[in-house]
Design brief:
single chain; 300 residues; alpha/beta; 8-stranded mixed beta sheet; 4-stranded mixed beta sheet; 14 strands; 24% strand
């Protein structure tokens, strides 16, 4: 019986710990970039969506921006198409773009379905809707990589319309150029551009790593909070490389453009969003403006 009381008390303490964060971010926009292993594992997928739905139900205004690279690769292989790479980037020719759009829309509606099952209204759209994501053709070191776009402008009108009507927007990263050609967009870049356009309070990247490390080979060097200056110093001092470099640069761009906080989280951990946003310790890395309030108190 005492054990049961202790468990109930722990639940109450968790709610009390979450209260100031609920108050602080109530009615604020939070953009969640959803990708990596958490999109492939069905159990993890549901837990991520449960987190986002809970954020909405306690008064946040979440927006999901999702990728689908692994699923696109699977379908390209399934139909027997050859994949070309330039400087490590997949060349998106017209047939590949057609498959990418179909796959991303399929992923999009599967996420809508889960949100609706959990009792929240969701609307799945792409960056083509309302000409939301307008792009220029992207090149890799001057080389043509096909229908890959770089966001030049975001028209958030349709996003605001959905939020005002109590929908949870779920966005796949497809945009159009001035001639209305369809382009695939890196989901990290799309999430960063959307978060900036809607003046999001938070932008959370769900990844396949725990966060930013001072030394990637030493798990004890996980950094809980980074100011802009500290993030730039890590890059200039050569501590950041590989896939983390563009991600951290995206974080810096988002902060410089007005997003208050950017989080890099391990999407493989169940309920990582709730743990990062609603607990004092958090579990990932938060990047914030130089003069922003720091939550981390050294316990981690």
């Amino acid at each position: 019986m005492d054990g049961q009381k202790d468990l109930e008390l722990q639940k109450a303490e968790v709610l009390i710990e979450a209260l100031p964060y609920i108050q602080k971010f109530n009615r604020k926009i939070i953009v969640v970039k959803y990708g990596g292993s958490a999109m492939v594992d069905e159990d993890l997928k549901r837990k991520v969506i449960e987190d986002v739905v809970l954020l909405k139900l306690v008064g946040f205004k979440p927006i999901i921006v999702h990728g689908g690279g692994k699923e696109i690769t699977k379908w390209i292989d399934k139909v027997g198409m050859d994949t070309k790479f330039v400087n490590g980037l997949r060349v998106t020719d017209e047939p590949t773009m057609e498959i990418a759009e179909m796959v991303l829309n399929k992923v999009n509606k599967s996420l809508v379905k889960i949100v609706e099952e959990l009792g929240v209204k969701a609307c799945g759209i792409s960056g083509k809707d309302g000409a939301m994501l307008q792009v220029n053709k992207k090149y890799s070191n001057g080389e043509d990589i096909g229908f890959v776009g770089e966001v030049k402008n975001v028209d958030p009108s349709i996003i605001y319309t959905l939020l005002e009507n109590d929908f949870l927007p779920i966005i796949c990263p497809i945009g159009i150029d001035d001639d209305f050609n369809t382009y695939n967009i890196n989901a990290d870049d799309a999430a960063c551009a959307i978060a900036t356009a809607v003046n999001a309070e938070k932008l959370a990247f769900l990844t396949d790593i725990e966060g930013v490390y001072k030394d990637p080979s030493d798990k004890s060097t996980l950094i809980s909070e980074l100011s802009l200056d500290e993030a730039r110093a890590l890059i200039s001092d050569g501590f950041i490389g590989g896939g983390m470099l563009p991600k951290l640069n995206n974080c810096i761009d988002a902060i410089e453009s007005g997003v208050s906080r950017v989080h890099i989280l391990d999407g493989r951990k169940p309920h990582c969003l709730l743990l990062e946003i609603f607990t004092n310790k958090g579990i990932g890395t938060a990047i914030l403006n130089n003069n922003a309030e720091r939550f981390y108190n050294g316990d981690k």
